[in-house]
Amino acid sequence: MTTLRRHAVTLIPGDGVGPEVALATKRVLDAAAAAAGVAFDWEEAEAGAEVFKKGDTSGVPAATRDSIERTRVALKGPLETPVGFGEKSANVTLRKLFETYANVRPARELPGVPTRYKGEGIDMVIVRENVEDLYAGIEHLQTHDVAQAVKLISRTGSEKIIRFAYELALREGRHKVTTASKANILKFTEGLFKQVGEDLGKEYSSLEANHLIIDNVAHQMVKDPAQFDVVVATNLHGDIISDLASGLVGGLGFASSANYGDGVAIFEAVHGSAPKYAGKNVINPTALILSSTMMLRHLGETDLADVVEDAVLATLEAGKALPQDVVRQQGGDVEAATSTSGFADAVIQSLGSRPTTVPAAASRPRPIDVKPHARWTSGEAREREVGGARVVGLDLFLQSLAAPAELGAKLSALAGQELTLKMIESKGTVVWPNAAPAFDPTGLFRARFLARAEGSDLPDETLLALAARVAGVAPWVHLEKLRVWGSEEGFTRAQGE
Ligand code: NAD
């Protein structure tokens, strides 16, 4: 058949089992495409462990960045990240470099895959914010033994991802969007996310919108997963509940995902490099093959996506080629399981077949276009974000092994004419002027100084002079200005304040 359409795609095989699942997926795609008059121009690129070993501390070399800038589409295997030390995750670097803010992870009951929830009709999509939150990766040691990470949530970022979730629900013919947050505890960060979910929900009146606290989402997902349709969450929560969701429908061997930005998309399995299986040709390649169907839809190859998805479903349904993880769950002989390459062969042989016990891909509502449309924060809101605040005080984070009463007395005496020491807290709980009944010192305190006069707008000199005086008593580690926008305070009270 003559080639009608060509697509350039950056292919990153990745680490561990990555090259095996990437090759399996590439073979399936090439076979399906050839039959449909489509061709892929694969640009193979490196990222991850091997790149770190060569001394590139970003894990994503310039050639790989250039390739993605050219193709705007990448299919990638998992990348290894040292845990707890060493280089930053090359995965996160890739997602952040290309601002792929939307991570989409579907979890749907699959034929032939044994689970505890068989027959309940699980069919949900977790939409995870992908570039903010604790994954901003801004961490500091406050003392040698007290570490802190910044949880960064912006209104623009929340709007982008939550609007994306509502739009995805519309495009996929879904009915309900659940915003999941921890707004009961984290009033500003998660509270902002919840608020945006509620505000945008009013715009999408044809969809049912609700909010659930994230821990309840975890509980409900295990108890009654079929109630969920689209769930949108901040980065870390989305990471955890999407793994939970994949566990409901067969585990990591089946969990596909896509990372969408404005104009760039990266498709990958949810699973990691599974090093103990690397090079053994035993891992299940379904997750990456299903991720590649999301890529095909993104490229506008909807029919081809349906063909590949149906071939995977038909293969699993037939039960003749079962990867090791399925055989293990069935309690069968893993030695007799189908290899990674063997599963790809079986899918290739099934191209053109459709499943009979679950809806075929083509019979499901067809996502028309998964690219988000941009209509972000209003100009007025942006202006509010960068200006218009009065400075009414200072939080000083400082190191001290002194007793709170002693520290309080010393810092009060240093507050000066314009400021007063309002409170001192440890781990977020007030320890001065009221003593906490059970106080376990860490060596780090936060002292809050507030302006004495109503309506003050404190100049930097006042704050810096205070910091200099305090430095004579205890080394301060960082400063946080306390600001108000009109009557809206930009800081929370400490526990017990
Ligand atoms: P992992 O997902 O690599 O493996 C955990 C276990 O899940 C495996 O031991 C295996 O039992 C099972 N599993 C994973 N993929 C499977 C598949 N395709 N088929 C069948 N079973 C499968 O998680 P890990 O061991 O925590 O992480 C290993 C490395 O991968 C780490 O360096 C981690 O940082 C990295 N990682 C990368 C990504 C990514 O690239 N997106 C995601 C997660 C972890």
Question: Which tags fit this structure?
Answer:
497 residues; Isopropylmalate Dehydrogenase; binds nicotinamide-adenine-dinucleotide; 3 domains; Alpha-Beta Plaits; 15 helices; alpha/beta; ten-stranded mixed β-sheet; single chain
What CATH architecture label of the largest domain applies?
Answer: 3-Layer(aba) Sandwich
Q: How much β-strand is present in the residues?
A: 15-25%
The tally of helices reads 15
Between the first and last Cα atoms, what is the distance in angstroms? 74 Å
Number of discrete domains = 3
Structural class by SSE content: alpha/beta
Please provide the count of β strands: 18
Main sheet makeup: 10 strands, mixed
Shape: elongated
* Radius of gyration over C-alpha positions, nearest whole angstrom: 26 Å
Low-confidence stretches: none
Briefly, what CATH class of the largest domain?
Alpha Beta
If you average the pLDDT, what whole number results? 92
**CATH superfamily of the largest domain, please?**
Isopropylmalate Dehydrogenase
**Strand order within the widest sheet?**
2-1-3-12-11-4-5-10-8-9
The helix content, as a percent range, equals 25-40%
Characterize the structure shown.
Helices cover 35% and strands 22% of the residues. With 497 residues, the protein is an alpha/beta fold. The protein has three domains: 1-98 and 257-376, Isopropylmalate Dehydrogenase; 123-248, Isopropylmalate Dehydrogenase (3-Layer(aba) Sandwich); 387-489, 2-Layer Sandwich (Alpha-Beta Plaits). The strands form three sheets. Strands 2-1-3-12-11-4-5-10-8-9 form a ten-stranded mixed beta sheet, with helices on both faces. Helix 1 runs parallel beside helix 12 (340-350) and helix 9 runs antiparallel to helix 10 (302-318). The protein starts with a strand and ends in an 8-residue tail after the last strand. The model has no long low-confidence stretch (mean pLDDT 92). The site of nicotinamide-adenine-dinucleotide (NAD) has 17 residues, from loops.
